[in-house]
Structures are given as structure tokens and as C-alpha cells.
Amino acid sequence: MSQRFFKAPVATLLICFLCLTAKAQLGYEYAQYDIGFGAAASRVIGSDAEVVTFAPTGYVNFAYNLTPYINYVVEVQGGILKGGSYTSRSKRYFENQYTAAMFRAQIQAGEFIKYSDSRIMNGLKNFYFSTGIGFVVNKLDIDPNLRIPDDLGYYTPGRNHSNQVLIPARIGYEFKIFNKYNQPSVKIDLGYQFNYVLGDDLDGFETGNSQNDVYDQVSIGVKFGIGGITSYRKAIKY
């Protein structure tokens, strides 16, 4: 009788362990942290210079994944923002060797939709939207001759060095690559980001009719899951 009494809880624990193992193999587990890097083509929109030009940006980020589809991202960017031309009517040209840091909350469609019964919905689950707050440090070297009126009456006051708050808004798609445990261990991120700057010094020009500066980006990056393995309420891979 005592042996049967002992075997029953052991069997129950064994069954529970097998169930948890099977759950992990079905793709319920994920890393709570990601580290990533990438590159982007960036441009200043609505600049006080006539010519819009794409320029390179690099970035690194760190993410805390509350779930596989709710992510909090800290990102640092560095690169060049430039535009205008010395041959344009206003002769305005700028090159900003900028650095930006931002915090974004990101939510993916998989948090809301049921994707296990449809290939289409399964493909849509990785679309995301993200927004937050950040700041940008501007470093320019504007020709001093542009700071005084020319014979056409163009006058371009402004600052070569400034710090400004920005609001990022991002949409994108995250391709998840799964390891042998069906955990999303590598993620390829394609995104478009719109950065609204609370100021008019991104291009170094402050004209009387200027509005706040904006720069946008098209980017590709890769993220790697690191540590803190935990489980989700439903399978991530189908």
C-alpha cells in the first residue's frame, strides 16, 4: 500500500515534467532579452535646404521582451544627415554628424491575433508598430558665409551644435528564425522610422518660416536572443 502511495505522486510529477517539456518543444519559450545592430538610410524631410539626400546611419539596440510580441527597446544611432547643395539657389548645404538615443515601446500583431489556424495570419503576426521618446545631438560645420545675407537676400541663421528632443514612430516586420528548441533566437528586422524633432536645428538652419525638423529612415537589422528564457501563453512557432 505504501509503495502505491509513493508511486502515485512520482508518476504525477513525471507526467507534469513531460508536459512542460513538450510545451517547450512546441515553441512556447523565448528569450526575454535581445541585443541587435543594423544600418539605415536616413534623410531630412522638409529641410530649409532645397535638395534632399539619403545618408548612412548605424545603430545598436537592446530590448526587453515582456512577451514575444511586446518589446521595450533602447537604441543608440550614429551617422550622417545631409542635404542641400552649394549650387542651389540658396547655396544652403549641411552635413550633420549626429548621435541619437531613444526608448521605444513596440507591439506586434501576434499579441492580439489568433494565428495558429491560418498561414496568412501566421505571416501577419510579426508586423509591428513602435513609438517612444529620445534626443538627438547635432554636430554641423555650416559655412559662416551662409550666416550673412547674400545678394539674393538669403539669410540662414542657426546653430552648429545643439541637443533636441525627438519623438520616433516606427512600423516594420520582424522575421523570426527559430533554434532547435523552437525558440525565436535570431530576428531580422525591416523597418521604416519617422523621427519628429522638437526643434529646428537638425539642418543647422533657422529660417523665419521654418517648422520643426523631421528625419526618416529605412533600415535593416538583426537581433539575437540572450538569456532569461521564459514561456508564453501560446505557441510562437507554427
Q: Percent helix among the residues?
A: 10-25%
Number of domains: 1
Unreliable spans are 10-25
Shape type: elongated
The chain-level structural class is mainly beta
CATH architectural group: Beta Barrel
Strand order of the largest sheet: 1-2-3-4-5-6-7-8
| Average pLDDT reading | 85
Report the top-level CATH class.
Mainly Beta
Number of distinct helices? 2
**What is the distance, rounded to the nearest whole angstrom, between the alpha carbons of the first and last residues?**
45 Å
Radius of gyration from the alpha-carbon trace, in angstroms: 25 Å
**Topology, number of strands:** 8
Largest sheet data: 8 strands, antiparallel, barrel
Report on this structure.
The chain has a single domain, classed as Porin, CATH 2.40.160. 13% of the residues lie in helices and 52% in strands. It is built from 2 helices and 8 strands; from the N terminus they run αββββαββββ. An 8-stranded antiparallel β-barrel has the order 1-2-3-4-5-6-7-8. Strand 3 and strand 4 form a beta hairpin. About 7% of the residues have low confidence.
What topology emerges from the helices and strands here?
Blueprint: H1 2-25, E1 29-45, E2 55-67, E3 70-84, E4 93-108, H2 119-124, E5 127-139, E6 161-178, E7 184-197, E8 214-231
Antiparallel strand pairs: 1-2, 1-8, 2-3, 3-4, 4-5, 5-6, 6-7, 7-8
